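We give the entry.
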Amino acid sequence: MTPARRLMVLKPSAMIGLFLVAGWLLVAALAPWLAPFDPLTSLTPLASPGTHAPGGGIFWLGTDLLGRDILSRVIYGARPVVGLSVLATSTAYLVGVSAGLAAGYFRGATDAILSFLASVVLSFPVLVLYIVVIVALGASYANVVLAVTFGSAPAIFRIVRAIALDIAGRDYVAASQAQGERAHRILIQDILPNAAPPLLVDFCLRIGYSAITIGALGFLGLGLPPPTPDWGGMVAEGRAMALAFPHLVIFPCLAISSLVVGLSLLADGLNAEGRRG
């Protein structure tokens, strides 16, 4: 039985997670064709879900304070959240994995310096680091990625360093060293592939953390600049009138929650498959 088939049979929750994640990826990719209205156009303010639009069509999820269709904004909001989450997590992994492999393999001064820098960054609350970076550099796509990378890379470094320290002492690494293999080849061919399974699980979880972070920054007004559709920003804009018009915050909250739950279920399935494999 193939690993994919075993995952489907033994962990149906993982398939649910895969369905949720793949669904949001498709929504983000097909946003211009799926959105019924322009997400920036003001139509009818505070229309209830299911209300008919003036020029035809239906506001399936209602409209916000400025009359913008919530469904369209949720659909377009998937693009920055999904895209930036994946990009920021990938960038953090590039930094964290590179530094962790170097520290775990070379040890000595390299390990001491990199571990000290990671400890310094990790001594600050992560959200505070995000806020400091965004406030200092301004809200933009690049700066959100930089903030998440800066805050996440040290934790990834520690995970990779611990795995690299363990693998670097095994016989097949010693055999490669005895054959005169260069350090970068040993890191890429011997250590990194054996460290990949747990890192893949952590990668899925960290995409979820990044999505929550981007939503939190948007809620605090430190995310993407308006009027860019942003799930966290949508919640912040609608919170003042949430009791009277709950649809203003319910649907963007459900969007964030479903993406994070999907990633968590997928990571759990990959973890179970890795233990079996």
User: Anything to note?
Assistant: The two ends are 12 Å apart (CA to CA). DSSP finds eleven helices and two strands in the chain. The chain has one domain: 8-34+64-276.
